[in-house]
Amino acid sequence: RRADGPGSERAMRVLICEDSVLLREGIVRLLEDEGHEVVAALPDTTDLAERVALDDPQLCILDVRLPPTFKDEGIKAALLLRRSRPSLPILVLSQYVEERYAAELISADGGALGYLLKDRVADVAEFLESVELIGTGSTVFDPEVVAQLISRQRRNNRMQSLTERERSVLALIAEGKSNQAIAQILYVSPASVEKYITSIFHKLGLEGDDSGNRRVLAAPDRLERVQVRG
To answer: CA-to-CA distance for 87 and 81, rounded, in angstroms?
Structure first.
């Protein structure tokens, strides 16, 4: 579906913040061909707040990882925009599914929101439709992001089923402690530790095997507790 040109009611003023020159210029071309006006195309967030205030975009497209550290500059900028300009629609682009960032955006107050993997830009029609939907107030998430968030929620629910003692045992497993060491630290018998571990693996849905892989698999799940409680 194409806009009817610069005078179309669906045409928007769009600000882009993407460090990759090829991707940035490619998005600019796609949007301008669709009749939208790209008011700014920035390589980083240095002048983002100023340009948003000056150009008053109707949609802001941000990469998750931007200079100088390429960690979370884009997501931090998106969260700031959702606080300072809650009505501004935001589309976040990411190379990979990053559950924590997606969850932070969802939990933050604000208006229309999109979170798409960069591969989606290659499907021009789908990408442009997503831009239009987000610009008109809809929330659009990449199916892979949704799947990961659902999986994460299931893991979190399993973590909440653990008792405080089981959480303590799991924390020590994550630190690489042996059953004997855990028993000494918690002042319980090794047999009790084994019972706790069996219960933990059952609640986390970790099947039994002969390789000890369950202890390794349990450690990342333990780290999810921080996010559940936060």
So the answer is: 9
Longest dimension (CA), the chain: 76
CA distance linking residue 220 with residue 155, whole number of Å: 10
End-to-end Cα spacing for the chain: 42
* Nearest of 54, 30, 26 to residue 40 by alpha carbon: 54
The residues that bridge with 113 in the sheet, in sequence order, are 90
Give the DSSP H/E element, type plus range, for residue 205: none
Looking at the chain, the whole-number percentage of residues with pLDDT higher than 70 is 81
CA-to-CA distance for 225 and 91, rounded, in angstroms? 29
Mean pLDDT over all residues of the chain? 82
CA 20 to chain centre: 20
pTM of the model: 0.65
Burial class from Cβ neighbours inside 10 Å (0-12, 13-18, 19+) for residue 195 reads middle
Query: Can you list the alpha helix ranges (DSSP code H) found in the chain?
Result: 21-33, 48-55, 73-84, 99-107, 124-135, 143-160, 164-174, 179-186, 190-203, 213-229
